[in-house]
Amino acid sequence: MLTDATRQRDFPSLRDRAYLNTAAEGISPPVVAEALAQYARDRLLGMDGRPLHEQQREAARERVGRAYGLSADEIGICSCSSEAYNLARVALGLREGDEVIINDLDFPSGATGWLQPSCPATVRIWRARDGALRIEDLVPLLGPKTRLLTVSLVSFYNGYRIPLGPILEAYRRHCPGLLALDVTQALGRIPLSLDDVDLVVSSTHKWILACHGGGLVGVPARRAADLTSSAGGWFHLEDAFGPERFEHVQSRPGAASYGVGMPNYGAIYAINAGLGYIESVGVEAIDRHAAPLVQACLAGLKKLPVELLTPDEPNAIAGILAVRHDEAERIHRALHQQDIHIMYHAGRLRIAIHGYNTMDDVDRLLAATQEQLS
Hints:
Helices cover 35% and strands 14% of the residues. It is α/β, with parallel strands linked by helices.
């Protein structure tokens, strides 16, 4: 992933293209395709394949636990991050008078469930200034009624990386609520330090290079009682088929309550393989390789006649940069025709740099963008 030889071996589809769109879709290495093929072979065994499926699920939980700084027992796997947040909403049992804090840099999955008419809590919005979430703007929103703050470690919108430690310190000082952290745009790209976070959520088809169909949930044991989902289902129940199953049910506590039905074992095989690949390379090594590319790209973008949406502040940047331009759609189309892949949405161009990217990718992007702006 980090050298020409391993890049050609593990990502042959990137040989002639500059793929800078991992924040939307990661490019899987062959081990992920092999894992999906192994799932298909194990599936042919019928019920005899179930123990093999469960081995993969347990191995994936262990790997997610290592990444989150939790034990395997503190990890649950559901179908996507949106499901995870909806199950968390069930677990919280919100009432009139409760307050939930969202922010305007987050992906819809972490924010919109609390805005549904069926949610009785009052929603407060932590609004960004100059592309960043400022602690001094958060504190006035906090109080005894705050039940939850939900925020992303790295914003999908502009790549802003929050100062997690200081935010946690301020949050604990001013309210009794829980903190939910989405690490979708960080897991597999930057080292994580998630001490004192109450709920951790991630998708699986981006930086860990797995596939769609997974939601990785971390609930520390100390918060299991607060974040046990009471959703219907069976896989998450203590005794789904006992003689009193139609009289009462009991969810397994904490993270286990987020796997409410038959696991998506195909995705789990891919998750295990993708995280295994990331582990074999090392997240620290990925960050050391990619961080200079991000800085070079940032320096180049600042020389172009575009509006930088990513705060140029120390420690505020991970793997994503974003700019705005009146002709962004035309520029995106022209770049795509040159096999330079970035994200376009509503006037915004978003660039995502992973361990399989090179300085040549960055140079190609900057040169082609400069040409389109000339």
